[in-house]
Amino acid sequence: xxxxxxxxxxxxxxxxxxxxxxxxxxxxxxxxxxxxxxxxxxxxxxxxxxxxxxxxxxxxxxxxxxxxxxxxxxxxxxxxxxxxxxxxxxxxxxxxxxxxxxxxxxxxxxxxxxxxxxxxxxxxxxxxxxxxxxxxxxxxxxxxxxxxxxxxxxxxxxxxxxxxxxxxxxxxxxxxxxxxxxxxxxxxxxxxxxxxxxxxxxxxxxxxxxxxxxxxxxxxxxxxxxxxxxxxxxxxxxxxxxxxxxxxxxxxxxxxxxxxxxxxxxxxxxxxxxxxxxxxxxxxxxxxxxxxxxxxxxxxxxxxxxxxxxxxxxxxxxxxxxxxxxxxxxxxxxxxxxxxxxxxxxxxxxxxxxx
Length: 355
Fold this sequence. Notes:
By secondary structure, the chain is an alpha/beta fold. It is 43% helix and 19% strand. α1 packs parallel to α13 (342-354) and α8 (218-227) packs parallel to α9 (239-250).
């Protein structure tokens, strides 16, 4: 097949890890006989410096015409003034809106070779395999923001339609896995969460009766993610709760450097990125972990390009590299090995892929 991929390296370690993702994508093209045309554009701080906008019109236009988008990371101390009118993070919010991407999928699986990378006991982590589905375009992040004298407010708004569509995404995913969905809210306090729970209950009852539904308050979920993470299969939740819980869940796998993500809408086009940030403290040193970006490429192959076999091959290649002890610095201590650099980790995946 032939597909156009928009590539947005972004800031900090973004260009370094994206380079390894593209290296693996090129190996997939050679091995399986595909043609992936990559076209690069600016986003985040780099875009602000060049154009004054965190998401230039040319970048959005490129992404709207591509089959998929591969993103590195945005932000850094250079643009970290909270009073600034233009900030790198605005580029992320704008591209999600511009592409109609409302469902963020964040799989969390613990490789047995990395059980020692987490601060939790190995017996708690063994068998962890879940997906968190986070609503991306509603809630408090997008609500009206007011600052008046000694007061400030952020409005949290959800509509029935927004809840229905994200629940359907999560339920279809759960139906293909263990048929278990946990909806996370704060319905004992928040009116938006009461709406969330009512709509979720109705959608699941009427459309997904074969999938077991459980409701959990967000504070309880935060506790049980650490106490008994293997209880979870698919979690669905609103924007801010999902943002926080997935960062917490990343520590089950030992590092944010291990976790990919996919942002999807109603069509096949999606945006794929590691869940970690731009890590400016290690940018340019060649030590960043590229595995989350490479696994994001696998999600892109599966969800946007319909190449399930190729996606599985990439995931297995990453697993092989990890088992072989090719571990970047953030997880190397778990394997008791000397850390490998960013490029060496990418090379290890390519070798396993083409073997």
